[in-house]
Amino acid sequence: MRKLYPLALATMTLLCPVFETSGDEGMYLFNDLPVDQLKSKYDFEPSQAWADALRLSSVRFNSGGSGSFISSDGLVLTNHHVASDTLHKLSSEDRNLIDDGYLAKSLDQELKAPDLELNQLVSIEDVTERVNAAVAKDASVADAATQRRAVIAEIEKESTDKTGLRSDVVTLFGGAQYHLYRYKKYTDVRLVWAPETAAAFFGGDADNFEYPRYNLDATIMRVYEDGKPAKLEHFLRWSDSGVSEGDLVFVSGNPGRTQRIFTVEALKFLRDSRLPYVLDYLRRKEIMLQQFGLEGAEATRRARDELFGVQNGRKAYTGMLAGLQDPSTIATKQARETKLRAAAESDPELSGTESAFAEIAAVQAEKKNMLGQTVTFRSRLFDLALTSVLRAAEDEKPNGERLREFTESGRESLVQDLLSTAPIYRDLERVKLADELARFVESRGGDNEWVAVVLDGKGPRERAAELIEGTKLDDISVRKTYLDGTLDDIKRSDDALIDLARKLEPEYRRIRTINEELDERERQAYAKITAAVSKLQGASGYPDATFTLRLAYGQVKGYMQDGERIEPATDFAGAFEHEAQHQGQTDFDLPPSWNQAKDKLDLSTQLNFVCTADIIGGNSGSPVVNRKGELVGLIFDGNIQSLTSDYLYTDQQARAVSVSGVGILEALRNIYGADQLANSIGK
Amino acid sequence: MRKLYPLALATMTLLCPVFETSGDEGMYLFNDLPVDQLKSKYDFEPSQAWADALRLSSVRFNSGGSGSFISSDGLVLTNHHVASDTLHKLSSEDRNLIDDGYLAKSLDQELKAPDLELNQLVSIEDVTERVNAAVAKDASVADAATQRRAVIAEIEKESTDKTGLRSDVVTLFGGAQYHLYRYKKYTDVRLVWAPETAAAFFGGDADNFEYPRYNLDATIMRVYEDGKPAKLEHFLRWSDSGVSEGDLVFVSGNPGRTQRIFTVEALKFLRDSRLPYVLDYLRRKEIMLQQFGLEGAEATRRARDELFGVQNGRKAYTGMLAGLQDPSTIATKQARETKLRAAAESDPELSGTESAFAEIAAVQAEKKNMLGQTVTFRSRLFDLALTSVLRAAEDEKPNGERLREFTESGRESLVQDLLSTAPIYRDLERVKLADELARFVESRGGDNEWVAVVLDGKGPRERAAELIEGTKLDDISVRKTYLDGTLDDIKRSDDALIDLARKLEPEYRRIRTINEELDERERQAYAKITAAVSKLQGASGYPDATFTLRLAYGQVKGYMQDGERIEPATDFAGAFEHEAQHQGQTDFDLPPSWNQAKDKLDLSTQLNFVCTADIIGGNSGSPVVNRKGELVGLIFDGNIQSLTSDYLYTDQQARAVSVSGVGILEALRNIYGADQLANSIGK
Fold it and tell me: Which domain of life, per UniProt (chains A, B) (predicted)?
């Protein structure tokens, strides 16, 4: 699944152009579309109106995915696995939306998501000059970071004050460009329809990242304004036919993070240190959540959404690491890099290039030392405590000096998160925190001074139980008190987790400062490398992914695998055959609704298809449109061969996997009895 | 489960006395029983005949557990989870002994285990003086290790030649003593009866290491000689009643490894480095085997026995680490150590003690560097290749210079292992080897010279497929050719795995030499510490566990947990109640045979009980006997509070868990229709 796993949203967002592109590679900025390429390769010239309509019909989910507006009365299409965070939060012991799915028969049955925020990209403005002008030429790394942060906060606040829109300055091309993105926010988002997980995630972990697939990984929500369905000017019309091999298609979504510009040394750091570290982390969480689930059906339900996310991340990172461990990958990257460095060396204007490569190598060594240096415990209750403590302290500072997430332009999103009505399960929190405390001891060593602070003389399990017992942060009104209060209120608190967060605050800030300085050093180095690439290869290209809106394009196209031709599309008949072939295997039973509807279904209707468009985690839920801008599909996965696309795009076998638009309509009408909903789509 | 996880059988077998004992602590040597303690604490004086009979009725399983003779015609009792390795090897797609259990209705239905070896301890001889005399006083660490190895090989060979018995010199008390153990070997071992896993492992991973329990974790085999049931002089009679609180009981079995003598620095190495490393390893294997099982029922079956072992190890090590992470554990150990060191410092004869502590600290730092330095890939086919390559090379050397496992006294066991008829699954081997190759790249870094040798320019998965494709070592006749062949035959081989093992041999030997020298340094240091303990505290005590026969004793005794009294014994009625309470949870369904027999059963019959005896992994399958030497139980687990007993015995809450002897008989008669078998037990 191509949802963004939270780990990918590290503090660092390094964003750079690629050295060389190939095939249908590219995640293009909407203000710098590959017009010439599309013209020459596909004889297609997107009009401004075509591009604007697609951009304004696209949305970003703050939970880590993408989506699109699909009707004039606010309907939003995304993946089931993007919505599953919300489905989980709306579920309880007595209402299992994950297992059973949901269909609102009328507006009043639509269920409000506790903390979703959808962003529609309204405008993009280049603010590079203003940002650069605010950073002194001879500033130290620390000063440069501070000055840049200050001017970015200023630009964002000005924009928010003026337009009322969410305003984010996005760092592109490794710091060579800064663009101001303004978003219209939708925070009243309601669930309209979701299928059963058995249909959405048919084939489970075994089929994840595989192809051919037969998944109805789709969910429909609706955005509201002032308590009523939003009236939308821009939304996608739907194509009433399936796709054919060779069709040109476009993907408009928010790829989370790529590392295409990474130097060989940076890739080796990923290969030898960071990815193994992340995988150990994910496997640990996977086992921990599985173990928790052994306690019974309700425990299984409580842990499941997080378990799915972890398993998905583990499989994705395993594929990424496997690609890097293949010696040919580094060899390919090394050849390109050697060529670039040789060219730069003979150009006096690019004399800083070599030192930039050296700087990146030096930073990797320091990043290795920082692995596991964290005091964020990935327990929701501790996160709330730490955020509350930091918020109170940051609010004492001028806007421009605050940590990024506490500046004024982000306040509304912060409040929404802190006051979310999503349920918090104390039993699960206790187990998660105990595991994190144990991990903290492991990563620091038991004799570390901060371990003494954290454990307070007890074992991790006992201490976690005490901390969870001693907090009231699962009560929204208590969180609101802290949110409305001052630093003094925080200081006076006797909440056990607030107390711990307070004690850990200096260490948290120390680590964060080091990481931000390392990021700044990389940013400056990659900016130099980017300049060299631009000058030598005249790259317009595209910047590495930043979880902001991009356009990718490609063809619907099958491929060869183990000597066998894989057709580009599957249909409903294939789903039933796949079920029969895997009888008795976990997650290979289609839901009863499908088997009951089998006779009514047009089994030849397209269900899933693949294309060559360049996508990555975060693109989940992206609409796939044809030349006319009509929706033909819904991105939900990449195949296993695409897992290396974080750092290397290929179109040999790598494919993006979509649910077919006609498949969604067929299922709504003939499986889920949702004719009314189906009829309102695209209108 | 208290079976020995293979990881515990590291090359190092450091074996030392404890500083202080408490309660019923102790795993005593049969030639140094705690006669005075038993007399004073329990008014019990074991006669020599009592002890000899118990020793000669006890057996060790080479698969990592213990057992006992229970009839004159060769019946052997052990745990289902000790036998499961054999059950797995005797199973196929069409015969699932793990799921379905087994009952031989007649001798000709008894199924021969492919590679089991049972050892009955016939005699113990102290050879300390001869071993020490062979090591020069001023020898370097490397020379001391070599000289010691040579004399041990010599002693063992002499003994084997003279007696025909398996002869092992065992290092005790950290090298302060060396004893020659002579074993009668049984290599024709056949399966008689096993229950379904649903009964043996009722409650699954969730209940593992928990109490109260309701598990029929028992299996009965039979030893044969010359193709006929062995006639046994010594076997255990069975008590015809259950146990009562306060009963004095004895456990005769083979605890695998304890670390009670470990210095604080050695424990910190476990806490901060080794156990986290092992747990990352186990979680990785757990996920890998689970993933393999997703491919279907047959894949699940193929991976299951190993998966069980890994999960069991993961849970045990998690408990061990949790104990060490509790600051009070190290504090307790530190207090004892400080006391000892202070006393030693004021004794001129013990002037070497401080330097011994320093030496152990220094060795820990080096061991940390060696973590993950391995070229043993834990794939059966690669193991066979490496063993074949080493065997050929070692056989060119005189017996005394060979690696331990290739000396003449161990030859028969080596041959049995190499020529085992246990099935080898190429699909599972491929996946396991791919994971190990990936792990090798991770632990060495992708640029390491040995990585280039191992991968040969391919990614781990591709390379593993090529290696498994290119080997014929799953064919026993091929393995026999290598076994009968010379080093030249190995050199001429074009088998892909033999070729890889040949290339890696120098690196394997380099690593092994370093590890053995580190062991030798620790051995010498612990011997000094042991001398100090003996002089200052007059300890007779017991040596750390060595997977050799020991006697432990204790009382049948309940305990308090979370303010609640836990009764010492459970019964069949409790099993059915436990099933009802956990309806719908994985592994909480008793098998159909139990539910069908419910009306016939005497539900008040004891099923499991706990006692305070000091056990550890390897004790699984040990008989529990009463004062009269009659079998009353069968050790199969320790409770979760006992998981720290590797390094710290307590009897507050820690308990050994047994299947009740009367429970086994009740099940045989009234669930499994095995009256004839039941009637022959104890006779």
Answer: Bacteria
- In angstroms, rounded to a whole number, what is the distance separating the alpha carbons of residues B60 and B66? 5
Tell me the pLDDT tens digit for each residue of A489-520: 999 999 999 999 999 999 999 999 999 999 99
Closest CA–CA distance from residue A564 to any residue of chain B (Å): 18
Q: How far is CA B370 from CA A624, B277, B367, B444, B513, in A?
A: 51, 11, 5, 11, 12
Beta-carbon contacts below 8 Å between A and B:
123
Q: Are A529 and A263 in contact (CB under 8 A)?
A: yes
What is B6-117+187-260+544-680's CATH number, 3.40.50.2000, 3.20.10.10, 2.30.42.10, 2.40.10.120?
2.40.10.120
* Contact status, residue A337 vs residue A647, Cβ threshold 8 Å: no
Q: Could you say which of A206, A455, A584 has the minimum Cβ distance to residue B297?
A: A584
Q: What does pLDDT average to over chain B?
A: 93
Residue A406 φ then ψ, to 5°: -110, 10
Predicted confidence band at A21 (pLDDT cuts at 50, 70, 90)? low
What integer is the mean pLDDT of A469-484?
Answer: 97
* A-chain residue closest to B280, CA distance: A280
Count of alpha carbons within 13 Å of B67, Cβ hemisphere only? 34
How confident is the model at residue B15, as a pLDDT? Answer: 28
Pick from B276, B442, B582: CB nearest A442:
B276
Residue B13 confidence class, pLDDT cut points 50, 70, 90: very low
Domain boundaries for CATH 2.40.10.120 within chain A: 6-117+187-260+544-680
pLDDT tens-digit readout, A173-214: 878 899 999 999 999 999 999 999 999 999 999 999 999 999
Can you read off the two tokens belonging to residue A175? 């710091």
pLDDT exceeds 90 at position A219: yes
Q: Hey, are the CB atoms on B272 and A442 less than 8 Å from each other?
A: yes
List of chain A residues whose C-beta atoms are within 8 Å of the C-beta of residue B96: none
Residue B3, pLDDT above cutoff 70 = no
Q: Are A179 and A170 in contact (CB under 8 A)?
A: yes
DSSP A419-487: T------HHHHHHHHHHHHHHHHHHH-TT-HHHHHHHTTS-HHHHHHHHHHT--TTSHHHHHHHHHS-H
How far is Cα B605 from Cα B573, in angstroms, rounded to an integer? 8
Exposure string over A661-682, b if 16+ CB within 10 A, otherwise e:
bbbbbbbbbbbbebeebbebbb
Cα dist from B527 to A25, B130, B346, B363, B534, whole Å: 66, 17, 19, 15, 10
Q: A504 near A386, Cβ under 8 Å?
A: yes
What pLDDT band is residue A3 in, cutting at 50, 70 and 90?
A: low
Chain B residue numbers touching A447 (CB-CB < 8 A)? 268, 272
Asked if A2 contacts A637 with a C-beta cutoff of 8 angstroms, the reply is yes
Q: What stretch of H or E contains B121?
A: strand B118-126
**Helix H or strand E segment including A557:** none
pLDDT of residue B534: 83
- The minimal CB distance from A330 to the residues B204, B205, B446 is found for B446
Q: What's the CA gap between B113 and A328, in Å, rounded?
A: 46
- Three-state DSSP class for B415? helix
Quick one: tokens of B525? 């240091």
- The residue whose two tokens read 């009980």 is B609
